[in-house]
Amino acid sequence: MGVRVAVIPIGGEAVRLRPLTVETSKAMVRILNRPLAEFTVVNLARQGVEEIIMGVRGYYNYKDIYDYFGEGYWLEGEYGIKVRLRYMPRVETRGNAEAVKVSLEYYGIKEPVLVVQGDNLFEIDLDSFYKVHEANKAFMTIALKEEERVEEFGVAAVDEKMRILKFVEKPKRREDAPSNLVNTGLYLLSEDFLNFFEGDVGSKLYREGLMDFGSNVIPTAISAGLPVYGYVTKGFWFDVGSPERYLDASLYLLSNLSPSDLASEEILPRVFVQGTSPESLALKRELRERINSGDIRVEGSVLIGRHVKIGRGVHLRNAVIDNYTVIGDGAEISDSVIMDRSVVETNAHIERSIVGRHCLVGEGARLIGSVLGNDAAVGNNSVLINVKVWPHKIVNNGVRLENFVLT
Fold it and tell me: Are 44 and 114 in contact (CB under 8 A)?
């Protein structure tokens, strides 16, 4: 028997990922032309998870996720997977551990459970993870990843049998970290997890509202002598907590995933195009011919969505272009993501930037290291360097902004 149930806690306002999350749940921010949470749901279902509980807190989180996923039945037609999605009731939880506790109590679940964070992209061998958890008869097993930058994560010190002896949440200095093994936010919990909160130690945490896994539950369980173990995962893992990390994850996965993982066809080396309709097949033929003829220049890896229009002389380098996007003649897009239904006009230059949904980038405009929230517009010949633009905001023609946040 493997892991049958997973919980994905999704709470808070994802402030660090703004402006992409001003009006959108972080789990529903589009990445590689699909919502972030879709990668997680599909990944888990393909490894045998049958039921996923969305531990959503707040209106935007619930509405965005439920309105897109529903109960999850449509995923069978789209991906050939069977998985049921359920939702935590409306409770103002005080941390991700409380979201898990409430979800398990609400649905009466008394079996080992996988916990996955809503803003993570990861690759893990779930069967191997579960076998280690069972072999150790662990109260909790944490997937750990070797990282150089440890200051932003929980860091674990382990013995030779991978039992976690010490856990430091976000050490202020590198020398305060007991190792380079960081907490990925992927947890396997034993069927005794809920009982922990009935005992003296767990009930005290609950009464005091100290219900975050990394800051409270994990170090307390270790101090109480409960068997908490680590499992080192070799697969990729990204905490998509900021626009910089979002872009890093997008470009890494774009360069490393297979055509099937990108739900696409590789029409030329590292040129991936999505869609299976007659119109999409025609677009694939057109793009192949135009790239071969030099009418469109492509370098590195490129992902192109459905019903995209690309003008003459366009240069794409390590770029993600989402569905229904229009790119004008002579535009240059490098190391960047353009989300769906956006327009990039003639001779615009976009470099290491993120353009949100339904945006307009005017003729001759330049975006460097910048992020546009959904439905933002940048006027002709404007220059944005290290700028964040909130949703629905307009930058007028010819404006130059540098190191600025437009809210």
Answer: yes
Give the percent of the chain with pLDDT over 90.
Answer: 63
In angstroms, the Cα distances linking 15 to 125, 151, 333 are: 31, 19, 27
Which of helix, strand or coil describes residue 388?
strand
Beta bridge partners of 168: 155
Under CATH, what is the fold of the domain 265-406? UDP N-Acetylglucosamine Acyltransferase; domain 1 (2.160.10)
For residue 230, give the nearest of 115, 140, 96 by alpha carbon: 140
User: Left if phi > 0, otherwise alpha if psi is -120 to 50, otherwise beta: which for 202?
Assistant: alpha
Tell me which of 3.40.50.11270, 3.90.25.10, 3.90.550.10, 3.30.470.30 is the CATH number of domain 5-241.
Answer: 3.90.550.10
DSSP code of residue 3:
-
Alpha-carbon distance of 14 to 16, in angstroms, equals: 6
Q: How far is CA 23 from CA 18, 273, 360, in A?
A: 9, 29, 18
pLDDT tens track for 362-386: 999 999 999 999 999 999 999 999 9
The model carries a pTM of: 0.89
- At 285-300, the pLDDT tens digits run 999 999 999 999 999 9
Residues of the chain with CATH 3.90.550.10: 5-241
First to last CA, the chain: 51
Q: What is the pLDDT of residue 1?
A: 65
More confident residue, 12 or 81: 81
The Cα–Cα gap between 284 and 286 comes to 5
State the span(s) of the chain assigned CATH 2.160.10.10. 265-406
| Continuous H helices in 325-384 | none
Contact 373, 358 (CB under 8 A): no
Confidence band, pLDDT 50/70/90 cuts, at residue 103: very high
- 254 burial via Cβ count (<10 Å: 0-12, 13-18, 19+): buried
